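Q: I'm building a small set of examples for a reading group on sequence design. Run inverse folding on the following structure and report the sequence directly after it, with nothing in between.
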């Protein structure tokens, strides 16, 4: 698959169908025209990290707000660094910042704000209690985005209001709670544990099965609607190059991702169109095909190739000096031309 870069032409709306029917023909015509339009969305992750970046975060948000081309924004997790306290006050502070987004904002939690909160320097919290608090603070209105309101389908009934999906211009989007730290299977050493606890394992199993169900539903609905592409978003970098050697030596190091990767492979290979995986977690911008023929990750996960999967990792931590603007081309575009992207530098 050809790697894409953002072009101005990709952001220009194609000619839209304009015939409306029904009780409100004008509104129907507007809806039909809108369905043909190109649009852009922004993605950030692993931000803000540390006092200096926390101070800059309001200005970062205003830079994104100023990008009027964006239909929505996604934060792919980690609203703090891994060595700071996971306090209620901090969660409320970031929620207040999130409320200043003028675009719809989709947020999926990262491991730094719950999975790793057992660490002594994080406050030695029970991670499951912190996950409950995150859901209370950030997902108090399931089915609605933060910032400006945009309706989304959620897994609220399964207790996972953070798992959401929606469709724009025949592109299916699915945002799922998949965590770094081996999807939350690493022991809570800050609480004195040397192995995963029964409650920890139960949470991982329940959340993972919910993720698998949403992924399958996303692809099934995309096929039924004849969608042009599927875009998946997670916090975890399941193909972190820094973990490759360890994962090749011991695949159990990434065992928490195995079922998810298998499902992505199966569904990607069944779907008649490109699939994009957007993630944070590893902090360094990358664009690649981690499951293409010959990739060492196929050995790690014991999977066949999925050549139509394109992965983009957004910058984070000290590299969080930009957001990535993705543009979905109008309905005339197919294959690799459907989605293009570029890094947009923050103003300061």
């Amino acid at each position: 698959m050809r790697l894409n870069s953002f072009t101005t032409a990709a952001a220009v709306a194609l000619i839209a169908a304009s015939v409306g029917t029904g009780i409100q023909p004008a509104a129907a015509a507007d809806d039909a025209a809108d369905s043909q339009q190109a649009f852009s969305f922004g993605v950030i992750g692993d931000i803000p990290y540390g006092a200096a970046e926390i101070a800059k975060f309001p200005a970062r948000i205003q830079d994104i707000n100023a990008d009027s081309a964006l239909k929505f924004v996604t934060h792919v997790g980690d609203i703090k660094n891994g060595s700071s306290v996971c306090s209620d006050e901090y969660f409320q502070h970031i929620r207040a910042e999130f409320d200043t987004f003028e675009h719809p904002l989709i947020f999926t939690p990262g491991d730094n704000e719950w999975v790793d909160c057992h660490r002594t320097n994080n406050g030695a919290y029970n991670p499951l209690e912190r996950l409950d608090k995150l859901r209370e603070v950030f997902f108090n209105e399931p089915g609605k985005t933060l910032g400006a309101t945009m309706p989304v389908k959620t897994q609220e009934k399964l207790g996972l209001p953070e798992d959401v999906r929606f469709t724009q211009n025949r592109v299916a989007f699915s945002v799922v709670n998949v965590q770094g730290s081996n999807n939350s299977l690493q022991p809570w050493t800050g609480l004195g544990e040397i192995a995963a606890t029964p409650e920890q394992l139960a949470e991982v199993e329940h959340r993972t099965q919910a993720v698998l169900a949403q992924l399958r539903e996303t692809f099934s609905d995309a096929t039924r609607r004849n969608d042009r592409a599927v875009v998946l978003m997670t916090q975890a970098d399941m193909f972190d190059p820094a973990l490759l050697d360890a994962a090749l030596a011991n695949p159990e190091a990434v065992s928490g991702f195995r079922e998810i990767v298998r499902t992505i492979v199966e569904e990607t290979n069944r779907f008649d169109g490109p699939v994009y995986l957007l993630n944070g977690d590893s902090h360094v911008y990358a664009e690649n095909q981690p499951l293409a023929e010959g990739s060492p990750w196929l050995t790690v996960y014991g999977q066949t190739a999925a050549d139509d999967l394109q992965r983009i990792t957004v910058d984070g931590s000290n590299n969080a000096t930009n957001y990535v603007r993705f543009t979905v081309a109008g309905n005339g575009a197919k294959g690799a031309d459907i989605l293009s992207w570029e890094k947009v530098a923050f103003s300061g």
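Residues 250 and 300 are 8 Å apart (CA to CA).
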